[in-house]
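Suppose you are handed only two things: the residues of a chain and a line of SMILES describing adenosine-5'-diphosphate. What would the bound structure be? This form records exactly that question and the answer produced for it, so the two can be stored side by side and reused later without any lookup.

QUESTION INPUTS
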Amino acid sequence: MTDALLEVEDLKVEFTTEDGLVTAVNGVGFSVRPGETLAIVGESGSGKSVSALSVMGLIDKPGRIAGGEITFEGRSLRSLSEREYRSLRGGDLAMIFQDPLSSLNPAVRVGDQIAEALLTHTYESKKAARRQAAVLLELVGIPHAGDRARDYPHQFSGGMRQRAMIAMAIANQPKLLIADEPTTALDVTIQAQVLEVLRKAQRETDAAMLLITHDLGVVAGVADRVAVMYAGRIVEEGTLDELFYSPRHPYTIGLLNSLPRLDSDRSVPLRTIPGTPPSVLNLPPGCALAPRCLYMQDHCLEATPELTAVGPETHRSACFRAAELPDLVGAVTDASS
Ligand SMILES: Nc1ncnc2c1ncn2[C@@H]1O[C@H](COP(=O)(O)OP(=O)(O)O)[C@@H](O)[C@H]1O
Ligand SMILES: [Mg+2]
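ANSWER OUTPUT
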């Protein structure tokens, strides 16, 4: 796709550990077009953060990008110098982390941190930057933003800190906003509010977004497209509707089944995915889901299925049985009801 803002191809990221080589990301590819929201969903340890950090140029030892291409606005990011990367980060490319305390400086007033980000990239006057910082804090719903700008991070609640992080991330009108589990550390009641603020911030700036979450429930109504990750690979990718209404990978089906549903038919039992994700340390051959998969066949233990189109071009699955899956799922559901 040439109209992509961000294009990641065949990305491979490895960590050297005492126990051996960990392949955290193993041939991942995705693209984000201007203004669109791509969600990356998967269990903890599936390689979501490592993928995001690779795009941000933040993979450090003992990790390394062992292969693949990352292209942003037609420019290859893997060949950027640290200095070039620094001018991109916080400018056209911004990231929001799960834990705002780790990215806010505890010793600097919240408003000053945002002003600093503005001065680094777009503003020249300190006074104007301070004023804009308060405007941004107001945009993300901080009450009495002008006064609160003079507070230190510890004087903010968790939800308010995450709002401040969003304000900082959009300060320089990024073209791409990467949000890595932006609401996971928050109370459930605050999560929805912060997600709404994130969407508003995205709309105001026309930014594209890469939304990373372990919670498939979060992406409904937010994402245009979804990529599902498992053990360092993308196992299914499609539009929001394709993923939710015609999933073609057993792992996605498992995730959907484990979502609590208010309108659920009580005669169908709530099913979670049995077992635990594999260690990505010295992964065995075959499909990584096979040991946990209800539809596994001998073949699945020997060869690794490639991500291939199922029906529409936008919809791809890495399952040998993707085509027959709707029938198989029907049979299992009938048998258990
Ligand atoms: N600094 C590191 N050293 C060793 N292994 C790491 C490091 N960072 C991540 N990993 C491994 O990479 C895998 C993917 O991690 P991550 O991308 O953080 O998962 P998640 O999907 O939860 O964001 C995990 O198995 C993790 O153990
Ligand atoms: Mg993570």
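WHAT STANDS OUT: The radius of gyration is 21 Å. The longest strand covers residues 20-32.
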